[in-house]
Design brief:
The protein is an alpha+beta fold. It is built from four helices and seven strands; from the N terminus they run ββααβααββββ. Strands 1, 2, 3, 4, 5, 6 and 7 form a seven-stranded mixed β-sheet that branches. It is globular.
């Protein structure tokens, strides 16, 4: 099975300050989504592998497109997620963003040791999806806890799935809550 793609969506944010003094290098956050037909909309099936097996190709292409939106800056933070239209189930979109997808996405953005944060749900067209971000090599780096919101008026239609990723070029611009820093992270276990 291959996916029946209706459209691709991209969002880019460039943050120069968040109430404090402007920073020298802005934080860039980007999200990319793909809208596909849900072959299981309106019916329950036990085997969702037809959604999982081809998902590496989506992970690769979404990752490639998202990384390109950072304008040459390396990816430091990442996340994934999706929305199933109201005739589908949350499990349908979860099947699209499993390890098969995640490993391909991770490779496409230049690697990473940390688990990829994820958010999935069901919703009607226009529902916002907050894609979580975390540092790609160590989840305990608090400076990179963030999100990118993806919302499109006609996505997802009832029989569609929105599969999406988010990336960032760094942590929040005025982060000051302490914790493990990027410089202190070892990236050995994906946590610290």
């Amino acid at each position: 099975m291959s996916y029946d793609i209706r459209k691709w969506i991209s969002v880019v944010e460039e943050v120069h300050h968040d109430g404090g003094a402007p920073v020298g290098q802005p934080l860039v956050k980007a999200a990319v989504g793909v809208v596909v037909q849900n072959p299981f909309a309106g019916r329950f099936v036990d085997d969702l592998s037809p959604l999982t097996e081809p998902s590496a190709a989506l992970g690769t292409e979404l990752g490639r497109r998202a990384a390109a939106l950072l304008g040459g800056r390396p990816v430091e933070g990442y996340g994934k997620g999706g929305v199933a239209g109201v005739n589908g189930e949350q499990e349908h979109v979860v099947a699209c963003v499993t390890t098969v997808f995640g490993d391909a996405f991770r490779e496409a953005v230049g690697g990473g040791v940390a688990w990829i944060s994820s958010a999935t749900k069901c919703g009607s067209a226009g529902v916002p999806l907050d894609l979580p971000l975390a540092y790609k090599d160590a989840l305990y780096v608090r400076s990179h806890y963030d999100a990118v919101t993806l919302r499109v008026d006609d996505v997802p239609r009832p029989d569609e799935l929105l599969v999406a990723v988010a990336v960032s070029s760094g942590g929040r611009v005025h982060q000051r809550v302490g914790g493990l820093s990027v410089a202190e992270a070892t990236g050995e276990d994906g946590l610290r």
